[in-house]
UniProtKB/TrEMBL annotation:
Source species: Flexilinea flocculi
Locations listed in the record: Cell membrane
Gene3D superfamilies per record: MFS general substrate transporter like domains (1.20.1250.20)
Residues of the Major facilitator superfamily (MFS) profile domain: 16-408
Annotated membrane topology: Multi-pass membrane protein
Spans through the membrane: 16-37, 43-63, 84-102, 114-133, 145-164, 170-192, 225-249, 261-281, 302-323, 329-347, 359-384, 390-406
SUPFAM superfamilies: MFS general substrate transporter
Cellular component annotations (GO), alphabetically ordered: plasma membrane
PROSITE patterns: MFS
Keywords: Cell membrane, Membrane, Transmembrane, Transmembrane helix
Record's protein name: Predicted arabinose efflux permease, MFS family
A Pfam family: MFS_1
């Protein structure tokens, strides 16, 4: 018998987001280190990887999630959240062990596939738990708070990642992430609340007319697929192309590093600082966009505006004038924080709680496809056309996303 869930609206945002965001930050440290450090030559020597393999390694976990997002989203329709979230966090520990032990591509591939499965459970769970405690009046705000608190954790990870690699070397830094991921499991065992109070038979629950389409599998996949296209565009551009080439982009302006107060700061550390700064800026735009659209009720219009904004910033990123390029980086961060928040809030508007996790699984698959293709395509196109031209052309992805969501 199929069951639907009853959300626990008595849980406050503080009770949920403090342990949730802390755990996500601890769990993603290893993944952040890979993105910050792997493109650099000395790190490649430590890991036994080739430059050509970096794009595959960075995108492999997301390719794996294309297979796991839907099953995991369906599983959340039947099980309490903690019963999936905590095992997913433990898989993060195993993935970090693979990174720490890797001296060739085999263990690295294993770690990335395991991390892909783990993140399916973690992010679908985090988003579903957020929708569990939200209402029609505050869904955008709650989605923004999730984005904000998670982003703060990712900011700390980005700052820590470059420093750890420069200070400890790749493998010792990864053993530190094993400890961090293990601490995450312990934190959630004791402090992560359950956002579902009960599961009851769906035959005893009346459905509102506007949710009928959400309960139809074909309609669910169609609608969530279109809603997920902006997330595909954002992840392809920022979480795929730009994140995986941050070191290369900074080297255009800063070389191997800079000297600050008689101390030389290596480029990997600077990449971590830059990534943290960019993420931190994006964290502020999510709650603002979510709360604003709670009042106006028009998330699609706001999403179109942010996609246009994102297209303009990618053009600036490709310029060779430092002040314009860095301005594009800052403004682009605003767009990324708002886009993801609006996408998940829009999904919450369209789907009832018993089908929301399935829709989120589909939307996440769209985002993961973008994140997976971004590094692979970028690292193969840059040698042919150069980094500036690749960056400047990224705005076309946002334009295509705008045209697609007009159909929803």
């Amino acid at each position: 018998m199929k069951f639907s869930s009853e959300s626990n609206h008595k849980i406050t945002s503080t009770q949920l987001f403090i342990p949730l965001s802390l755990g996500l930050a601890l769990g993603t440290l290893g993944d952040t280190i890979l993105y910050v450090a792997l493109p650099q030559e000395k790190i490649l020597l430590q890991t036994g990887l080739t430059t050509g393999a970096v794009g595959l390694i960075l995108g492999l976990n997301r390719l794996a999630r294309l297979l796991t997002n839907h099953p995991v989203g369906t599983l959340y329709c039947y099980l309490p959240r903690r019963k999936i979230m905590i095992p997913a966090a433990f898989l993060g520990v195993i993935a970090s062990v693979c990174y720490a032990l890797s001296t060739n591509i085999t263990l690295m591939i294993a770690g990335r596939v395991i991390w892909g499965l783990a993140w399916s459970g973690l992010w679908i769970g985090a988003t579903t738990m957020t929708l569990d405690i939200s209402t029609d009046e505050n869904r955008g705000k709650m989605s923004g708070i999730l984005a904000f608190t998670t982003t703060i954790g990712l900011t700390i990870c980005s700052l820590t990642a470059g420093v750890l690699c420069d200070w400890l070397g790749f493998h010792l830094a990864m053993w530190f992430t094993v400890f961090a991921c293990s601490l995450n499991v312990i934190v959630w065992l004791f402090f992560l609340p359950e956002t579902i109070t009960s599961f009851r038979s769906k035959k005893n629950q009346s459905l509102l007319p506007q949710t009928q389409a959400a309960m139809n599998t074909r309609s669910l996949f169609k609608i969530s697929g279109f809603i997920g296209i902006p997330l595909f565009a954002q992840n392809f551009v920022y979480n795929g192309v730009i994140v995986s080439t941050t070191v290369l982009w900074l080297e255009r302006f800063l070389g191997d590093g800079v000297k600050l107060f008689h101390t030389f700061v290596p480029i990997v550390t600077l990449a971590g600082i830059y990534s943290a700064f960019r993420i931190l800026i994006g964290a502020t735009s999510g709650p603002i966009a979510g709360a604003f659209t709670d009042r106006t009720g028009n998330r699609k219009t706001a999403l179109v505006i942010m996609l246009i904004f994102g297209a303009c910033t990618t053009f600036l990123l490709g310029l060779s004038i430092p002040i314009l390029a860095f301005t594009g980086a800052i403004l682009g961060s605003i767009a990324t924080g708002a886009i993801s928040t609006l996408v998940y809030a829009w999904a919450g508007d369209r789907f009832q709680s018993e089908s929301a996790s399935k829709a989120i699984g589909m939307i996440n698959s769209m985002g993961d496809l973008g994140s997976a293709l971004g590094p692979i395509i970028a690292l193969n196109l840059i040698p042919l056309f150069g980094l500036p031209k690749v960056y400047s052309s990224l705005g076309l992805i946002f334009i295509a996303a705008i045209l697609s969501i007009l159909k929803v």
